[in-house]
Design goal:
Blueprint (H helix, E strand, L loop, with lengths): L20 H8 L3 E5 L2 E4 L1 H20 L3 E2 L5 E3 H7 L1 H4 L5 E4 L5 E4 L4 H11 L8 E10 L14 E11 L2 H21 L4 E5 L9 E8 L5 E6 L17 H12 L3 E3 L5 H4 L7 E16 L3 H4 L2 E4 L2 E4 L1 E8 H11 L1 E2 L2 E2 L10 E5 L5 H16 L4 E4 L5 H11 L3 E5 L1 H5 L3 E5 L5 E4 L1 H13 L2
Parallel strand pairs: 3-7, 19-20, 19-21
Antiparallel strand pairs: 1-2, 4-6, 5-6, 7-8, 8-16, 9-10, 10-13, 11-12, 11-13, 13-16, 14-15, 17-18, 21-22, 22-23
Helix pairs in contact: 1-10, 2-6, 2-10, 6-7, 11-14
The structure holds adenosine-5'-triphosphate and magnesium ion.
Length: about 450
């Protein structure tokens, strides 16, 4: 992409109404535009990050053996009357009436609808286990939408639902989700800690929330410092291997980690004092096991050799749009965003220090073509702006790598490769810069 032809409406001033850094930077970097309280348009740069997050979520869900579907945002009230949640859900549910006076709603979550799909098409236990998921917009009429996309009213969520024959099978599904989530967040450059949670309005027994530590988080969290040393890394996982998954889950759930809702002071104080940590956290996902809560009243049953059985279910969410903000909260400095390589909107920036100079322009074009040939997606600042302004924009929008091209360096056959996170620079030939970036991104 060439900046002169892109749509990147950056703001020079700090927007007055944005209270936290991710919201400020998302507005300043031209990633989103607010349309109503808690409702945003995604502008091109923001959309690229959102799509990258979606892609990682899809890849990791499918790696775990889960099957994508797409349900509508609009749901009939009658389905929710079957589960008893139409009345129970309260004012967070946006209720709508169509021209035939039928009650509808904009889905805040999809347990009822997925159960309806399941009961319509699945009859035999032989079709289990099954986990279906989607990435779809949700609407919750939050009392206080705030912090930009972190607490929106319309927001993008991955929601997955497992259908299993027994408690043991459902716990394997639970573990599959926990392990796949650990991988998912790490690929986004985040450490998200699974914490024992409270089941809330969805209701259930076993549940963990995944929290990213950040001072602006809405939850108060308590944890054993030992948990922050855990890394998933590139270990191979066989998602069918129950024992192996259970072991990974044990590894991550043994150190104390809880939100204020489930915090147990006595247990916490058993940890060595120097490891007792209190912080704030952003909830970026949650997994639930809730048994037959929906399958029983809605008649989602399968035939087995021993008769009909209501399936054991769980639901598992990832806050896809919230993650864009959470990643910025976890990775920025006072000049702007620092995207982790896994989600960056462009792989690198190219800054032309002397636009219009034949040799400099040609070198930038060659770099641009060379990077694209390696499958990389550069953002080339080919505008007439001053160098200082070009650097400020690149720093603000947070591309992890920048190649700076100017006449002085080119005389020696060199360009400069700079890492956004550290500011470390290195002079090397354009070919070497392309090769280096290709090597870096081969891991993502
Ligand atoms: N209003 C919102 N805006 C953006 N993301 C949200 C919002 N509500 C929930 N999410 C994301 O969707 C994920 C799954 O939804 P879930 O039903 O667990 O939310 P929740 O527990 O009600 O969230 P919260 O406690 O933050 O209100 C959450 O972990 C969170 O990351
Ligand atoms: Mg939750």
């Amino acid at each position: 992409m060439r900046l002169s032809r892109y749509f990147l409406p950056v703001l020079k001033e700090n927007p007055a109404d944005a209270q936290i850094v991710s919201h400020r930077y998302m507005l300043r970097a031209g990633m989103i535009k607010q349309q109503q309280a808690g409702i945003y348009s995604w502008l091109p740069l923001g959309l690229r990050v959102l799509r990258n997050i979606e892609r990682i979520v899809h890849e990791e869900q499918q790696r775990a053996g889960h099957i994508p579907v797409l349900m509508p945002t609009m749901q009939p009230a009658d389905l929710w009357r079957e589960s008893g949640r139409y009345d129970a859900y309260g004012p967070e549910m946006l209720r709508i009436r169509d021209r035939h006076d039928r009650d509808m709603l904009f889905g805040p979550t999809n347990e009822e609808m997925i159960t309806d799909i399941f009961r319509a098409h699945v009859e035999s236990y032989k079709q289990l286990p099954m986990t279906l998921y989607q990435i779809q917009w949700k609407f919750r009429d939050e009392v206080r939408p705030r912090f930009g996309v972190m607490r929106g009213r319309e927001f993008l969520m991955k929601d997955g639902y497992n259908f299993d024959l027994s408690y043991e099978d459902a716990m394997h599904a639970y573990n599959r989700h926990m392990v796949s989530y650990l991988r998912t967040y790490e690929r986004m450059g985040l450490q998200a800690i699974p914490m024992r949670a409270d089941s809330g309005p969805i209701g259930g027994d076993d549940t963990h929330e995944f929290l990213v530590l950040a001072s602006t988080g809405e939850s108060e969290v308590f944890y054993d410092a030992a948990i922050t040393d855990l890394k998933f890394g590139d270990r191979e996982v066989d998602f069918q291997d129950r024992a192996a998954l259970a072991k990974i889950v044990e590894e991550w759930t043994t150190p104390y980690a809880r939100t204020d809702e489930t915090h147990d002071v006595a247990l916490f104080h058993k940890i060595p004092a120097e490891r007792q940590k209190t912080s704030r956290g952003i909830e970026v996902g949650q997994i639930f096991y809730f048994g037959t809560k929906y399958s029983e009243p809605m008649g989602a049953k399968v035939n087995t050799p021993d008769g009909e059985v209501a399936v054991h279910m769980g639901s598992h969410g990832i806050g896809v749009s919230r993650l864009v903000g959470a990643i910025i909260e976890a990775s920025h400095d006072d000049r702007g965003i620092i995207w982790p390589e896994g989600v960056t909107p462009f792989h690198c920036g190219i800054v032309n220090l002397k636009q219009g100079d034949t040799a400099t322009d040609a070198a930038c074009e060659a770099l641009y073509a060379g990077l694209r040939k390696k499958g990389l997606d550069p953002l080339y600042d080919d505008t007439e702006e001053r160098a200082g302004a070009k650097f400020a924009t690149m720093d603000l929008i947070g591309l992890p790598w920048r190649i700076t091209v100017g006449p002085r360096g080119l005389k020696e056959g060199k360009v400069e490769l700079t890492r956004r996170a550290t500011g470390d620079s290195e002079e090397l030939s354009p070919d070497a810069a392309v090769a280096r970036l290709a090597e870096i991104y081969a891991g993502f």
